[in-house]
Amino acid sequence: MDFYLLLQFFLGLVAIINPIGLLPVFVSLTSHQTEQERLATARVANLSVVIILLVTLVAGQMILNLFSISIPAFRIAGGVLITFIAMSMLQGKLGEVKHNKEEGREAAAMESVAVVPLALPLMAGPGAISSVIVFASQHRDLQSMLGMGACIVIFGLVSWVVFRTAPVIFKVLGQTGINVITRIMGLLMMSIGIEVIAAGMKTLFPALGQ
Fold this sequence. Notes:
The longest helix has 39 residues, at 166-204. 80% of the residues lie in helices and 0% in strands. The protein is an all-alpha fold. The protein is globular and about 50 Å long. It has one domain (23-204).
């Protein structure tokens, strides 16, 4: 794999995952957290994305085949998960954890937001996973695999830097602005979830697209 193909792989991840476009979602999902908790959430989310994509690079297709899971089925599952999270955002329930006095449960909830839905399926979703699987299937030599692995790590670092700008957005918008964005993004996320489900259904059942 030459440099051009590695650049194509990296830019493909940037376009599919779009960390800048996910900033409003990140702001909404972490609106109940302190600044330190948001930074920790950003770190856990991007580390999770790197791990998920590296595992996918090495054994993604094998894992899906092992459980007889197709990409369309994975897409539908991700869409359903996004839709459920969007419903919580529309109802303003994401912040309920801040009333919990048990620190262990608060930490668990923070990590849950970082891994689900941020890391999976919003960032390392069906699109990113299928892209990595396709590239890995076409370039199985050790040099190419190492190059793609390095691209994934670099992407994780870039995305983490982007997420660190979220506190600036908090200071500009204030809590009222964040609450408005949370509900708007909830509606948009629900639309995205439905689109992802529809795309998976059309692929899984081609007759539906006719």
